[in-house]
Structures are given as C-alpha cells and as structure tokens.
Amino acid sequence: MTTVVLHDLLIGVAVGIAISLVEVVPYIRRRFSVTCRQHHHGVELSLTGAVTCKDVPKFLEALEGLPEEQALHLNTRRLRYEDHTSAETFTDRIRRQTKAGQRIEMTPPRNAQPLLGRIVKQFATATG
Asked: Is this model's pTM higher than 0.70 or not?
C-alpha cells in the first residue's frame, strides 16, 4: 500500500515539474534586457522580454543604480512575461521606493498576461 502511494506521489511530482517546464520554456528563450535612459524630467527604465527568477539580480542592480532624487518612468510596454518571484520583487521594490518619496510612473505592457495585469494594478495602488 505504501509503495503504491509513494509511486503515485512521485509520478504526480514529476508530471507537475514537466508541466511547469513546458509552460515556462517559451518565455525563457525571450531574453530579458534592461535599458536605462536619462531624460531632463528623470530616468526611464525600459524592460524588454521575459523576466524570470534568474533575472531578478539584473533587475535589482538596474534599480539600485538609479538616483533616488529623480523621477522614474518604468516602461514595461515590451515586457512579455514575468514569473511570480520577479513580480513580487518588482512590486516590493517599487513600494519601497515610492514610500521613500521617489515619483514613479509606469507604462503598462501591451499584451499583458494575467500576472502582469495584476502587477500593474498593484503598482497603481502603491503609487497613488
């Protein structure tokens, strides 16, 4: 009896991992890039591609290198995918910077997946 349950449990875990990989693989091929441009009215940070947990350090490094006294415009128009880990990091960091007094604006993604749509709503709530 225990062997059957253990066998079924292992099959369930393997199937779950396989389904997760099938869901994420198309987005991993779309490289994540961050472009920073200085404007007279502040800084624009453009996010492009697909951001996953492996890209969180790159994203945080880009945010930490920005001057806090200038307005920040996040251009996520070309962002196609964001996993849960990066979404939570993104939202938490924006909340912290907003509480510290930095003015932040965001251009939402064109073809937002449900998670990105939720992040845009959370961002709107956090900033005003």
From this structure: no
Domain boundaries, the chain: 1-30, 31-127
Choose among 105, 109, 63: nearest CA to 82: 109
What pLDDT digit, counting tens, does each position of 70-98 carry? 888 888 888 887 878 888 888 888 888 88
Write out the E strands in the chain. 33-39, 42-51, 72-82, 104-107
The answer to whether the beta carbons of residues 55 and 114 sit under 8 Å apart is no
| Region of poorest pLDDT, from 7-11, 77-81, 107-111, 113-117 | 113-117
31-127: which CATH topology? Transcription Regulator spoIIAA (3.30.750)
Rounded to an integer, what distance in angstroms lies between the CA atom of residue 41 and that of residue 26? Answer: 37
**Radius of gyration over every alpha carbon of the chain, rounded to an integer in angstroms:** 18
Write the single-letter amino acid at 100: A
